[in-house]
Q: What sequence folds into this?
């Protein structure tokens, strides 16, 4: 379980996150939603210690992450950033191998087991045919799957993703969500930030709604993404075609 207590974060005197209190249980798909600037990406980066909280604590299985060496934390939480360009030529396979870095001692070569894990990660996200190609040659959707394979090769119990579908067309969005559901079935815990409210509603077990750096609501998706909550935070009206389990439609409030 990831537990966050009284977390605050500020940068250059600006308060980005304020008094965050959250719990994320293992084995589920968790989504973080909120308007632009609500603190979604910042919260993820505080959890995996890309940035350290100004105040408060993050616990992973009851252990304070601030007391964990970064290598140990990287073995337990992998992070998939937003679409990031690579300024130097690197093959897909080499990129995925970077996910093994937390497990390979300095000045040591990868073992046969490392090679097998990397190959399995590429197979799981269906990029084996791209293994020898330069990552700079790939489409946005293909690159996103490479980043996910890199995180998967870490074999961490938690995967954090920062808006992994924001620049993808619908085909690649659905492929990513299908992959995440498969990861959940295999025991992986997933926490991501997402802009697309309808996908958060349809695919995720829990949703946390951030508003101006604070937690507006958090809990099971269908109970949390209420019409009132979405109206107050996103200023949209929500209607459902059929039952409340069906695809939601949003319009300006």
A:
């Amino acid at each position: 379980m990831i537990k966050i207590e009284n977390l605050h974060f500020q940068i250059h005197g600006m308060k980005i996150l304020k008094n965050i209190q959250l719990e994320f249980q293992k084995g589920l798909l968790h989504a973080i939603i909120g308007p632009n600037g609500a603190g979604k990406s910042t919260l993820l980066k505080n959890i995996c210690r890309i940035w350290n909280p100004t105040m408060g604590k993050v616990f992973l299985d009851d252990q304070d992450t601030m007391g964990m060496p970064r290598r140990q934390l990287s073995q337990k939480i992998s992070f998939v950033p937003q679409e990031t360009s690579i300024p130097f030529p690197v093959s897909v396979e080499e990129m995925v191998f970077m996910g093994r870095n937390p497990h390979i001692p300095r000045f040591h070569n990868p073992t046969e087991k490392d090679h097998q894990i990397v190959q399995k990660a590429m197979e799981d996200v269906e990029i084996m045919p791209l293994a020898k190609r330069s990552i700079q040659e790939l489409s946005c959707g293909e690159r996103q799957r490479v980043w996910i394979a890199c995180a998967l090769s870490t074999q961490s119990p938690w995967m954090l993703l920062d808006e992994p579908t924001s620049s993808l067309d619908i085909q690649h969005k659905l492929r990513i969500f299908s992959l995440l559901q498969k990861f959940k079935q295999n025991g992986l815990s997933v926490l991501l930030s997402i802009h697309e409210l309808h996908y958060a509603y349809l695919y995720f077990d829990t949703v946390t709604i951030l508003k101006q750096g604070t937690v507006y609501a958090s809990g099971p998706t269908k109970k949390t993404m209420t019409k009132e909550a979405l109206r107050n935070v996103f200023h949209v009206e929500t209607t459902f075609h059929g039952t409340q389990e069906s695809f939601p439609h949003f319009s300006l409030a």
The chain has nine helices and twelve strands.
